[in-house]
Every structure is written in C-alpha cells, then in structure tokens.
Amino acid sequence: MPRPREFDDGTALDAAMETFWTKGYEATTTAELCENTGLGRGSLYNAFGSKHAPVAELTRRHFERLEQALREVIEEGQRAGEFAPDRDPAQLARTLQSTYYGLRILGSVAQDRTTLLDVAEGALTALH
Predict the structure, then answer these.
(1) Own/partner long-range contacts of 88-97 (Cβ < 8 Å, ≥24 apart)
(2) Which burial class, exposed, middle or buried, applies to 87 when counting CB atoms under 10 A from its CB (0-12, 13-18, 19+)?
(3) CB contact at 8 A, 95 and 46
(4) Are 52 and 4 in contact (CB under 8 A)?
(5) Rounded to whole angstroms, how far apart are CA atoms 105 and 19?
(6) Other CB atoms within 10 Å distance of the CB of residue 34
(7) Most exposed among 33, 46, 80, 85, judged by the fewest C-beta atoms under 10 Å?
C-alpha cells in the first residue's frame, strides 16, 4: 500500500507554477522544481509525472482554481448589484481569466500603456 502524501498538492502546485513563470518552461530543471516545491525527485514524479505531465496537470488545476475564485467574486458582485445580474458568472470568469493571461503576454510586447488599458477596460465593461 502506498504511503499517504506528506505535502499539500496545492502548495506544491503553486510553487511549481511560480517556478515555470519565473524561469520559463524550457529553462526549468527538475532540480529547481524539487528545490522550490520542497519535494524530493521521487515524490515530484509520483505526484505529477514527467515535466510535461506536471505542467499539463498543474496548469489545469491552476486554471480551475482561478476560474472558481473569479466566479465566486462575480457571483458576490452580482448579488450586491455591482455586476450585471443577467450574465453567466462562469462565462465572465473565463473572460477575465483569459484577459489576464492575454495581458501578461501582450504586456511583454506592447509598446504603449494605452493598448493594455484598453484591453483591461473592455474586460471590466463586460461585467456591467
């Protein structure tokens, strides 16, 4: 019978995602993932599989958690009358999430701040 995990998946997930964001996918080594998550090589592979499998799984989990958090905030805003009550909270959460990640990429290549502000304003307008 396998031993129970002695670490929190969410904490390890966050640390791994931060490592990938900071170092970049290609530049991140297994040793760096081990160091930043606090997991041994065996635990890392047992929990997440190969580098390609931890990335896919970590990304999926991260996106799901972020979408859930955004949806909860949007639902609360709808109840408070701050956001349009007739819009689907899951759809709005996905819009904001994709806008956020799009802005991260666009921010690295956009030459002027106005472009980024236009994108953010468009996403906020969708809430009303």
Answers:
(1) 92/126, 92/127, 93/67, 93/68, 94/67, 95/123, 95/126, 96/70, 96/123, 96/126, 97/63, 97/66, 97/67, 97/70
(2) middle
(3) no
(4) no
(5) 17
(6) 18
(7) 80
Is residue 98 within 8 Å of residue 120, measured between CB atoms? Answer: no
- The label of the residue with tokens 């065996």 reads 42
Q: DSSP alpha helices (H): ranges in 80-112? A: 89-109
Residue with tokens 């666009």: 106
Tokens of 89: 């909270």
What is the per-residue pLDDT for 5? 66
Integer angstrom CA distances of residue 86 from 5, 60, 67, 92: 43, 28, 19, 11
Four-CA torsion 94, 96, 101, 105, nearest 10 degrees: 130
Degrees, nearest 5: CA angle 123-13-100: 10
